[in-house]
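Newbie here. two chains, one complex. Structure please?
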Amino acid sequence: MEQLGELELLMEKSFGEEAALPAELFQKKVVSSFPKTVLTGGMDNRYLVLAVDIVQNEEGNHEKHLIITAHQSLEYKDRCILRNDWCSVPVEPGDIIHLEGDCTAGTWIIDKHFGYLILYPDMLISGTSIASSIRCMRRAVLSETFRGSDPATRQMLIGTVLHEVFQKAISNSFAPEKLQELAFQTIQEIKHLKEMYRLNLNQDEIKQEVEEYLPSFSKWAGDFMHKNTLTDFPQMQLSLPSNDGKNNSTCNIEVVNSVDIEESIWSPRFGLKGKIDVTVGVKIHRGCKTKYKIMPLELKTGKESNSIEHRSQVVLYTLLSQERRADPEAGWLLYLKTGQMYPVPANHLDKRELLKLRNQMAFFLFHRISKSASGQKTQLASLPQIIEEEKTCKYCSQMGNCALYSRAVEQHTDDSSVPIIMLPKIKEETQHLKLSHLEYFRLWCLMLTLESQSKDNRKNHQNIWLMPASKMEESGNCIGNLIRTKHVKTVGDGQYLHNFLRKNGTIPVTNLMAGDRIILSGEERPLFALSRGYVKEINMTTVTCLLDRNLSILPESTLLRLDQEEKNCDIDTPLGNLSKLMENTDVSKKLRDLIIDFREPQFISYLSSVLPHDAKDTVACILKGLNKPQRQAMKKVLLSKDYTLIVGMPGTGKTTTICTLLPAPEQVEKGGVSNITEAKLLVFLTSIFIKAGSNPSDIGIIAPYRQQLKIINDLLAHSSIGMVEVNTVDKYQGRDKSIILVSFVRSNKDGTLGELLKDWRRLNVAITRAKHKLILLGCVPSLNCYPPLEKLFYHLNSEKLISFLFCNMKVFVTYWEIFQEDKALFSLPFHTRAVSPLASACGLYFVCYKSSAWLDCEDNFYLKGTK
DNA sequence: GCTCTGCCAAGAGGA
């Protein structure tokens, strides 16, 4: 919030003052709003706007004059003059922009004929999003906010299937039998079958509808591919800027090959991203001349509209293509229903207007929060104006959110003007909501938006294009200098196993571990985000990854980098849920009642009335394994009509084991805290369990610190021990293993424990993941500084469960057996995991966990998943 | 103070 305050302070200043603002203040703003941006000139320029002035030129027209700098020191200033419609770009002092065009004598001129300005170029907006903003900017912004409001439909499924069939055919064959086979095979894919089930459609009707398209596929291929004479190819009117002067726009079009399928491109130059259905090699025969171009081909399965939205999408893809190769100057729009293909030239005017829309959208997405006019209240900003087109609104899937936002947010705080004809519609859409509901929506929408904007939650992959791999490697979240080795193995649909080798020597110190999500890019500029996936295996020299695309089309010499996918703040799901909670349905109404208006949950009186007769034995069997308080709570859950809050903590059982050794001081280094002695002991104990006949997959190793996990992993790799899972406490949440070994790591003289271990919830998770045996390893004097652990030791000590391994550096080792004794450790009321499967089997709405007070913590309520 | 949580994604078509 401090940063936001700073920003607003700047925004409130007038232009004159802006220019005079001290450089440090600007630098502060840039650091807080654009933490990763490095100002730079040249092709990938990033300018900081220092001042904005509106002036009248000699012809009496308005121009926007910007004072800009591409230097971190802010010392060297350039100018940018925005003419014609560019004057309307909502650019403000402190903004980051990218400029395309020419800079002469320190001045950029962007006008209707030449040049582009890209606002917040590192914010990548998808082609479809921008295309949809043509009709209604508000809807485009709402769709980016409330994702998942678009219900899936039969047509969408058909569309997805047909895209896939065409894409397979173009690199295979369009022969009718082959098409049949590809269609059949595609329909059988699990993801499509699931979707059919969801939409309540049967396979046969989908198959039939898909098959209706296939003759058009063949017709298209017959027209555009594999002919003997050039003149057999369809004639089209297509003039490209590069053959200017020549009036001959007539040409024959030959589609030679498919260069790529679903090519995913990020363009930090134009601030765009997108996926190109098919990237095709095309020969354009004009007179006796032939030009070969690699161009985007966009497939459409719906009505042959050749609409401005469809064409715009293609124009945007020509911009994306420039990130990888020469400007295609045009693209193709193919309607699969008829096989009709339209050329879409990308002229300056279209590109200019689309980029202006992109800028507008970027502005709205960037400015989600505002300050109230009266003072210091942080509130949600207004969205783009509601349009006055009842026809467009009639079928809009964002109608509900649009009206809700207008009523709950805009009409509450702002003097925003709603078109009069839209007022009744807004009222109608929101009349089922009480004031308390609107308030709830406003509050949570604000909270979630703020959360997503907080510094460490901001989702951006900017490092990939703003920072070279060699520099990123220092953080441990990136590995560069990799080349692809061996063959790419296709594991499944959209899953390709790749092997990478560090080109020179060994892989540097890294945080990357098996299971981490990564983004694969080329080291060279144009190859950002070629593919996404997971690390499968990593050692000193090689990395194995499961990727979503097959990269064997790249030359083997291509230098690649892996970037750990930054955590993404998923506010999409809660925002989607919030939107759903406000829907005019019975289910949502009931939930509003319980959640917003706090209606007390209801319970029925007798279990026999709810339990199906044949479920009795099963339930009895499950209950038998629980202790008394667990059984009582379980009963309450079963009687629940609405929801049940379960207050609980896990644990029971005991036994002892003894070892001798872990002095075991911790090491603090760049990668984090670790404890080699504990690690060795732990690996030793693991080997004992395996020798004793335990299955490695039944053993889990937990440590709170990543560095410790790394050391344990290294030790395991050098031993003969197989696939033992090693992970952080948090990754084990909600799961368990037969045998769990925990390494507490911390051991020092001054009693520093760090905040991490002090989180009692984490401690709780760590000691409750074991089904049969739990071994805790740690330094008693160090850990004793913390009351909850002290309590634990007190108990363990009284039960003689602690083995002191060395006289002055005491280490405890213990395990106990869970579920074998009725007696609960610490008199814990519950074992939550025992409850949840049963609860969900009973179809409860909520399963709620209240954190227990056993460690003198404050009362926290956790609302867990809805069903 | 060194950890994690919600996570695949841009588009599938409608009018």
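Moderator note: The domain at 667-827 of chain A is CATH 3.40.50.300 (Rossmann fold). The two ends of chain A are 34 Å apart (CA to CA). Thread marked as resolved.
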